[in-house]
Amino acid sequence: MYVDIAALVREALLDNGCDPSLLGNFDSHSTIALDFNDIPSVYISSSDDDIWLWSRIAEYQDTILEQCSYNLLKELLEGAEYIRGGHFSLAENESYLELKALLLPWCLENKQNFASALSGFFERLERFTKALR
Predict the structure, then answer these.
(1) Which end of the chain is more exposed for a tag (fewer CB within 10 A), N or C?
(2) What's the rounded Cα separation, in Å, for the pair 13 and 24?
(3) Statement: the pTM of the whole predicted model exceeds 0.85
(4) Please, which domain of life does this record's source organism belong to (predicted)?
């Protein structure tokens, strides 16, 4: 199922009250970045027919994982209805700790579903970021 992710992202953000002047030109063929002031950027990537939401939540360091493992594990164990497999994943990539979510197909059916998944990811991103402090 082909999804014009750029149009879906734009519609979802506008529907949730985002100022149109803050939205640049999104491209469905490359990763879309949503930048914020107080939390890490949220990235939206397409791979085949799959859509990933992800964020670089910290520079990867073993000491951070050792100190924050309980809080991170607690967050990982809490499910999310919009993610395949029901749970977030954490991975090291290019010296960063990344929070990732592979969206279920129903999230891509319309702007309301996508906005709900994006809001859920944003809320959990805040919690994962807090768990690293």
Answers:
(1) N
(2) 12
(3) yes
(4) Bacteria
